User: Fold this.
Amino acid sequence: MHKLKKMAPVIELKNLVKRYGNLTAVDNVSFNVDSGSLFGLLGPNGSGKTTIIKMLTGQIQISGGVARVVGIDVNSDPVGVRKEVGIIPEQESPPSFLTAEEYLFFVGKIRGLSSIKEESDWWFSYLDYGDKKKVLCKDLSRGTRQKLMFSQAFIHKPVLALIDEPLINFDPIMQKKVKDFLVSYVEKGNTIFLSTHILSVAEEICNSYAVLHRGHLLSCGLVSEITSGGLHLDDFFLSLVKGETEC
Ligand SMILES: Nc1ncnc2c1ncn2[C@@H]1O[C@H](COP(=O)(O)OP(=O)(O)OP(=O)(O)O)[C@@H](O)[C@H]1O
Ligand SMILES: [Mg+2]
Assistant:
């Protein structure tokens, strides 16, 4: 597990609510994420993780409460938030009609990069997919599309990246590379906010966490507060969620 160094909130959620019709998907959730965190948002299927990431990145409207990301109120300035952060959504794919290289150039232009070729070549090399540069995104494998989504999220070196399930489509070699990248990225003073079902990964790389269940926040804090007592994150998670389910 990576140690937390800095202590200023880069994300603040206060009484955050999201309703889809009659369903309250996120119910009065409050927590902060400090700058320099590698933060893991944990929770069973349907607990509200993706909904929170979508609200924090201005992809959906907040029903109640406040969310501030890099000091910006996401409800009043969602574009301002998206300018500052990197995002890997849960299900998005790069556009089918562009090649991998064209897509990174396109994102680099939007992000105002002056060194698009250098940055994209670095990513093609680091994630080992330079041979796919000229391939249309529709013809890339799922894992390679995920490499491209990863590259676009970090190409402008954002101070904060929000990633919905970063490792899900990667083979073990890529998982290791991506984990190493995330840890070193945070060591440079940036912040990562990720959701994951892979609790061993959260325990390995995250320094802070929150557990959601049916839209409610069950627990949040430092991973070391759990593991220093000899407990593993998966046992902690299962006991928390099982307790809730039985209530
Ligand atoms: N657009 C939508 N319209 C209606 N209900 C939605 C919508 N998006 C999500 N939901 C519901 O909100 C709840 C939370 O969904 P969400 O996708 O945030 O969960 P999650 O924790 O990301 O789950 P998973 O681990 O399966 O990705 C679920 O009950 C889901 O069915
Ligand atoms: Mg999800």
Notes: The pocket of magnesium ion (ligand 2) is lined by residues 49-50, 90, 164 (CB under 6 Å). The mean pLDDT is 93. The chain is about 35% helix and 25% strand. The two ends are 32 Å apart (CA to CA).
